[in-house]
User: Which sequence fits this backbone?
């Protein structure tokens, strides 16, 4: 409601893509889109929040800030804010969607790749996804033993790569394209098929140093603007496995966008704002996943609250830093695309 009100105040056109899933109080859930600027834009900045549900709070705050003070737009430019691609996860304080699918592992545009899991994930499944409610079970110790045995980097990559074999497991990519991504892809093709250039910024939280941000590029997707942006922002720019803590994934939103909009030059950046350690974030994801599948899933449970704190810390300094860094990248992307400057 705040997003919609802010969009109307800013003079944006609003659109809403409804999902069949419901919130914990039986609320309807929509992916909301606010469109500022040209109706048939040549150049577009597309800002996306909440691909990972519970990570949406930071992105939503940043989008409210952008609506309160939008960047200057030329006659042929548009700024489009996609408010929460996974509203089920935001409402239920989950990373995954209504089918336990990690949407950033679900953007497969080809058929026939909805199976399998990394071999090491299969060995870690029992540790990552116990079929029981949350409890203390020496997870950190057991994970570090797995790291010693297989290598920390290999373990991290196997967990985060995405898997299609364990439907109740973490980082599950699904068995088909999910309703939210389907609606979003159809919307993009109907509305932006004639755009010349698009910079997409996909905002996440949970990776990297506390309150710091990292820009991650998608191998092969639009690498013109982002190295320039990265230098101007003096921020680390990373791709896949070259960064400590980062990893490569299958079925990401960024990898799909150029194929969704084949006539458009697509630049893509995934902006991560760091929160807690990778171990603490993973542990919080694991316990919430157990509560969702093997508890009653209500959102006041400590497992839910810990996941929220792990991905959107309550400290005001963190929240201010998150909004400042997210809006900074959006403004600079707009300045570069619309006005050719940084
Ligand atoms: Zn994320």
Assistant:
């Amino acid at each position: 409601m705040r997003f919609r009100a802010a969009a109307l105040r800013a003079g944006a056109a609003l659109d809403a893509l409804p999902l069949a899933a419901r919130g914990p109080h039986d609320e309807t859930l929509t992916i909301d889109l606010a469109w500022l600027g040209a109706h048939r834009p040549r150049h577009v900045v597309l800002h996306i929040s909440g691909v990972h549900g519970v990570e949406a709070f930071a992105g939503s705050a940043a989008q409210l800030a952008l609506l309160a003070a939008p960047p200057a737009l030329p006659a042929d430019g548009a700024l489009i804010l996609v408010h929460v691609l996974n509203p089920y996860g935001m409402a239920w304080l989950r990373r995954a969607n209504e089918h336990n699918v990690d949407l950033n592992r679900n953007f497969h545009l080809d058929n026939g790749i909805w199976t399998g899991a990394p071999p090491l994930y299969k060995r870690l499944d029992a540790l990552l996804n116990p079929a029981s409610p949350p409890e203390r079970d020496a997870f950190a110790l057991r994970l570090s033993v797995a790291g010693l045995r297989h290598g920390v980097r290999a373990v991290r990559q196997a967990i985060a790569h995405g898997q299609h074999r364990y439907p109740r497991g973490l980082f599950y990519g699904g068995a088909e394209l999910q309703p939210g991504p389907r609606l979003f892809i159809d919307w993009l093709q109907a509305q932006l098929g004639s755009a010349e250039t698009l910079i997409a910024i996909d905002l996440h939280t949970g990776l990297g140093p506390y309150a710091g941000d990292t820009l991650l590029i998608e191998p092969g997707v639009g690498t013109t603007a982002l190295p320039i942006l990265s230098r101007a922002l003096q921020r680390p720019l990373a791709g896949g496995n070259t960064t400590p803590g980062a990893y490569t994934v299958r079925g990401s939103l960024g990898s799909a966008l150029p194929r969704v909009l084949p006539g458009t030059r697509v630049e893509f950046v995934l902006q991560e704002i760091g929160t807690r350690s990778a171990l603490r974030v993973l542990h919080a994801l694991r316990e919430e996943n157990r509560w969702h599948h093997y508890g009653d899933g209500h959102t006041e449970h400590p497992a839910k609250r810990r996941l929220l704190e792990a991905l959107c810390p309550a400290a005001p300094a963190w929240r201010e830093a998150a909004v400042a860094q997210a809006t900074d990248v959006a403004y600079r992307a707009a300045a570069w695309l619309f006005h050719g400057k940084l």
Notes: Residues 316-339 form the longest helix (24 residues). Residues 283 and 322 are 22 Å apart (CA to CA). The mean pLDDT is 93. The radius of gyration is 19 Å.
